[in-house]
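## retry 2 of 3
previous attempt timed out at serialization; input unchanged, resubmitting
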Amino acid sequence: MQQPHDPQEIPPPGCPAHGNVQLYGPSFGADPDGHYAHLRSFGLSAPVDIAPDVQAELVTSYDAALYVLQNPASFVRDSRRWNALNEGRVPADSPALPMLSYRPNALFSDGAAHARLRQAVTDSLATIDELKLVRQTQQSADYLISRFGSEPRGQAELMSEYAQPLPLLVFSDLFGCPPEIGDRVIAGISGIFEGTPGADEVLGGALTELIALKRRRPDSDLTTRLMLHPARLSDEEVLHQLVTLLSGGTAPLSATIGTSGALYLGEEWQSGLPVEDAVAQTLWNYAPIANYAAHYPTHDVELGGRTLRANDPVLISFAAANTDPKLTAHREQLSAKAHLAFGAGPHACPAKDPAFMIAVTAVETLLNRLPDVELRVPFKTLTWAPSPWSRSLVTLPIRFTPQNVPAAAPPARTQTAQSAPQAASTGQHAGSRPGSATSSQHKGGLFSRFLAWTRGE
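## retry succeeded, writing output
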């Protein structure tokens, strides 16, 4: 449980021009909870800078967050309304623009357009076989553990070697990527979050090829289901929904896996509690999407004594709302799922159940494969990324007794894996695990090597 902060204890730095609290940089990253405590002194919401020269109103109250999230008549998501952007007051190179700029997807749509896109997404996600998803996650986890679990040093960095790549492998499989396209999807998503120039183009190009492939050869994967949905999405609409699902789902899931594992292995975790409790506590106290969900009031709105101006961005602090002192006093009486980590209202995350399942399975598989795994440093000393958008560990150093993790029997796989030999015959080599006899023949990326590993190559 996080400790409450005195609002006067930590005066966060403000912008000299207008005194807003800065929701970025090392000071915020080192103690976001202290910043949220200070922001609560303003009321239900407070003025913040989410990037240099980019202002927004941040809702920190749980009840106020629900009011905004569940009131689409007064708060819409279309960022083309953004006053400062339309008036040229947002720097063209602002790091906030990739997060807030309009895209034709369900996240930035309202009304009938949103309902149409979201229905296609939710119906497609509803076809996921839960048992198969667990098997896919376990196999992806086994592969990643096999890469570091037998190292004689008995040490690993769990974020980069496990929590971050695992969702990418699972998603590439779920969306029916053949090896070479899956490699570029993973490279593109990873590059976006690492700030690699051209990563957007890499991801867009790979997904465009994936859509064209599924037009020629439909399959039972999520991409095909999205394309064949009765909503009749255009290829461009399918592309934008895929980008949202892939890039918007992998980073929060990586953060959830990492933090949940760290909590479970941490010095304050009560022995005997299940992994599900660690994931639930992560979603409550360390919301992976910390501050996001920009809304634009359709008219001036009074909220707790503050005026939210029409078409000025209003962001939801899921992190602050979940730890709202007015809520924590009776949180035990609430459902374990009453947190806002997955949002609420018409734009709530449509993949919350699969995401929870993947996170639990990922942590459980790690514990089963490396029974004596432990943190190399205390949980309280772990470093968090200084991002206004997410709450994610920078590193997660562990130690363990080296294990031999053999290739698990492949589950019933989709055409994605079955098509790998065909891809290899056309020059798209599938890859293999390090040190195998065929490693010199396979020069592909992470997904290619994973698929080769599942075949014992």
